């Protein structure tokens, strides 16, 4: 068998059906070793199902996948030695303490009694859980649980780590910590495949992104490539005096060089923002004209915009059951 | 953003740092027998940790022998055997068998609960023997049986029960009951694997166990029952186990008759172990 491959993940035509629901409907993925790959999609798109198949937890109905060249079905046990999985829902033992969990998994991974203890303590310290180490998990916050879960996935220092929605439900501070941890893992040589519902997150972390919808990859590329498809950020201005809207819009179009729109109540104008440098000019110009601003914001493209532009329909559609529309 | 209050002094220690690339690792697609046993023992250790963490789950194991021994002995003792002291050799083996076998249901319910828990996904993603969570659970449960057995004997002793066969007969009877309960727990493990929820496992198991343990000679001599019931009681395997345990305790003789339940236990394991393992592996 070819043992040295630069692909950490190769998936070809993965399919998984639950009853009549094609949860994953022919997914192809290529994840290069040493990179972060983001799988972006709304609720029910098939992210978790895809990861489950790649992580040997679920048998594909069709298609094949290889992890570092090893087939996930025929060489499942080999694949399991190469991956760490942090599922969407914490997969730690609720009946045990944090330390007991990490020691248990370390022992199962072949560490001796003392090594396991040391490993557990190191990981707890690294993830800021030392104080809570012996507390029952039932008293853990969502963020602590998530960190413990990630720590448990890193015991064997696997070269490939699956993170299923690692930051969903985390507060901004904890989310930033999680991002930091992911960057650190990659700096250490790991490959990370993560799923997320936020374009911003995929954009920040991932080298490449696959957008999936209803079990299919509908777009793939770098963050910039995707955003180019969606269009750029836009600038939103709310005016002190609505009657000045047309004048303000005229100035904005002249300074930024693109066409904008005014909102229905005309107090708000929106202009695509391709060159942030020119915003300063615009603001100075507006003040010079005596147009007072109530509010000033930059609207970045969201997953919704990506969807709108790629599939031509908003994400909410993905949730409505088949047949309800048609 | 300066939000990094997470301790990062050990940046390249436990998780980051030098990851050995996939192609430089020695990888095997098989788990050896020795490893399988080690994984099972680790899973059994987990079971014991959980018992220690949540001692409430031992309530049935601890309270049943205590309450039943006291209750049955004082309620039925006089009526059945004339007095409490002469009822003890009848009732203690009966309660012992009933308690330990009832305890074996827990194997099934806990297995189901476990398989529904998130942690089971982690077990399935680790390079460990597939069978380890199952065999570990079965192993850890023998500790429950030992606790239930000990408590029943202690209760009996406090109430004045002195088995004729002495300490060796007590140990022998205890082992006999534990081995049989372990064998029976394979049946409940099977239910646990195939059932939808823990409460349905509990439900099915109790429907089967209740008649088996009460329609037996565990509490009342068979000849006081109507003939049609005697027929059932006499073919009931629980009756045979109770008789064997009584023989061992009260005569101290390990007759061939006393070992009959062991054959039954072997048959149960021979049938249900492969069934359970097959069903389990399909889901694990
Ligand atoms: N075990 C299962 N049995 C039946 N249907 C399932 C099962 N798992 C997932 N599905 C269905 O498959 C589809 C994809 O689910 P999946 O969990 O992969 O989505 P997801 O992208 O992870 O969504 P989310 O963002 O909500 O986690 C959904 O329609 C879901 O209802
Ligand atoms: Mg999911």
First CA to last CA of chain A: what distance? 47 Å
CATH class of the largest domain in chain A: Alpha Beta
Give the strand tally of chain A: 14
Report the structural category of chain B: mainly alpha
What percentage of the residues of chain A does DSSP assign to strands (E)?
A: 25-35%
Strand order within the widest sheet of chain A? Answer: 6-7-8-3-9-10
Counting helices, strands and paired strands, the structural category of chain A is alpha/beta
Mean pLDDT of chain B: 85
Tally of DSSP β-strands of chain B: 0
Rg over C-alpha atoms of chain A, rounded to the nearest angstrom: 24 Å
| CATH topological fold name of the largest domain in chain A | Rossmann fold
Strand content of chain B: under 5%
The tally of domains of chain B stands at 1
Biggest sheet architecture of chain A: 6 strands, mixed
| C-alpha geometry of chain A | globular
CATH homologous superfamily descriptor of the largest domain in chain A: P-loop containing nucleotide triphosphate hydrolases
Explain this structure to me?
The complex is a heterodimer of chains A (326) and B (284). Chain A is of the alpha/beta class and 326 residues long. Chain A has 2 domains: 7-227, Rossmann fold, CATH 3.40.50.300; 232-300, Alpha-Beta Plaits, CATH 3.30.70.2030. Chain A is built from 12 helices and 14 strands. Chain A has helices at residues 47-54, 76-80, 98-108, 113-126, 142-153, 172-187, 199-205, 223-230, 245-256, 277-288, 303-311, 316-319, and strands spanning 7-18, 21-32, 36-40, 62-67, 70-71, 83-86, 160-164, 191-196, 208-213, 216-221, 233-239, 261-262, 268-273, 293-299. Chain A starts with 6 loop residues before the first strand and ends in a 7-residue tail after the last helix. Residues 317-326 of chain A have low confidence and may be disordered. With 284 residues, chain B is mostly helical. Chain B has one domain (32-282). Chain B has 11 helices and no strands. The longest helix of chain B has 29 residues, at 166-194. The radius of gyration of chain B is 23 Å and the shape is elongated. The two termini of chain B are 44 Å apart. Classes of the chains: A alpha/beta (326), B mainly alpha (284). At the A-B interface, helix 2, helix 3, helix 4 and helix 6 of A face helix 1 and helix 5 of B. The site of magnesium ion has 4 residues of chain A, from helix 1. Residues 18, 21, 23, 41, 43-49, 88, 197 of chain A line the site of adenosine-5'-triphosphate.
């Amino acid at each position: 068998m070819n043992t040295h491959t630069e692909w950490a993940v190769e998936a070809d035509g993965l399919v998984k059906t639950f009853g009549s629901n094609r949860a994953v409907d022919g997914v192809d993925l290529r994840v290069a070793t040493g990179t972060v790959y983001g799988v972006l999609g709304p609720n029910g798109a098939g992210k978790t199902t895809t990861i489950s198949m790649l992580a040997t937890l679920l048998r594909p109905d069709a298609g094949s996948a290889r992890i570092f060249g090893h087939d996930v079905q025929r060489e499942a046990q080999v694949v399991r030695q190469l991956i760490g999985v942090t599922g969407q829902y914490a997969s730690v033992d609720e009946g045990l303490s944090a330390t007991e969990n990490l020691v248990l998994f370390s022992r199962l991974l072949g560490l001796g009694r003392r090594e396991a203890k040391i490993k557990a303590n190191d990981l707890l310290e690294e993830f800021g859980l030392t104080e809570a180490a012996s507390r029952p998990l039932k008293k853990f916050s969502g963020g602590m649980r998530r960190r413990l879960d990630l720590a448990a996935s890193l015991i064997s220092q696997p070269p490939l780590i699956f993170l299923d929605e690692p930051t969903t439900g985390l507060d901004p501070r904890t989310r930033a910590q999680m991002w930091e941890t992911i960057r650190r893992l990659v700096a250490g040589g790991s490959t990370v495949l993560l799923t997320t519902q936020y374009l911003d997150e995929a954009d920040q972390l991932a080298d490449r992104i696959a957008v999936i919808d209803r079990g299919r990859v509908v777009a793939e590329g770098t963050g910039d490539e995707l955003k180019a498809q969606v269009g750029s950020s836009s600038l939103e201005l709310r005016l002190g005096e609505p009657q000045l809207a047309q004048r303000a819009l005229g100035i904005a179009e002249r300074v930024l060089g693109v066409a904008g729109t005014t909102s229905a109540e005309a107090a708000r104008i929106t202009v695509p923002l391709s060159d942030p440098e020119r915003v300063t000019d615009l603001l100075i110009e507006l003040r010079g004209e005596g147009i007072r601003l109530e509010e000033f914001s930059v609207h970045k493209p969201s997953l919704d915009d990506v969807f709108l532009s790629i599939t031509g329909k908003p994400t909410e559609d993905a949730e409505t059951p088949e047949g309800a529309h048609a | 953003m300066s939000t990094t209050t997470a301790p990062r002094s050990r940046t390249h220690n436990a998780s980051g740092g030098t990851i050995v690339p996939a192609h430089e690792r020695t990888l095997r697609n098989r788990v050896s027998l020795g490893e399988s046993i080690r994984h099972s023992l680790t899973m059994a250790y987990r079971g014991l940790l959980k018992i220690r963490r949540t001692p409430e789950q031992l309530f049935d194991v601890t309270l049943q022998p205590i309450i039943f021994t006291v209750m049955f002995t004082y309620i039925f003792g006089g009526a059945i055997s004339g007095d409490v002291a002469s009822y003890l050799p009848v009732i203690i083996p009966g309660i012992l068998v009933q308690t330990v076998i009832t305890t074996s249901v827990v194997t099934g319910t806990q297995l189901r609960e476990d398989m529904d828990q998130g942690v089971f996904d982690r077990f399935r993603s680790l390079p460990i023997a597939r069978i380890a969570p199952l065999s570990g659970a079965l192993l850890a449960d023998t500790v429950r049986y030992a606790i239930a057995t000990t408590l029943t004997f202690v209760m009996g002793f406090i109430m004045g029960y002195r088995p004729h066969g002495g300490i060796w007969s007590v140990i022998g009877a205890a082992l006999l009951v534990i081995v049989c309960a372990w064998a029976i727990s394979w049946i409940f493990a099977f239910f646990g694997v195939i059932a939808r929820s823990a409460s349905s496992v509990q439900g099915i198991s109790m429907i089967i166990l209740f008649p088996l343990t009460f329609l037996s000679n565990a509490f009342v001599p068979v000849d006081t029952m109507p003939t049609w019931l005697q027929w059932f009681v006499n073919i009931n395997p629980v009756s045979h186990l109770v008789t064997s345990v009584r023989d061992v305790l009260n005569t101290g003789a390990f007759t061939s008759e006393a070992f009959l339940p062991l054959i039954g236990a072997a048959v149960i394991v021979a049938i249900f172990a492969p069934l359970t393992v097959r069903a389990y592996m399909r889901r694990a």
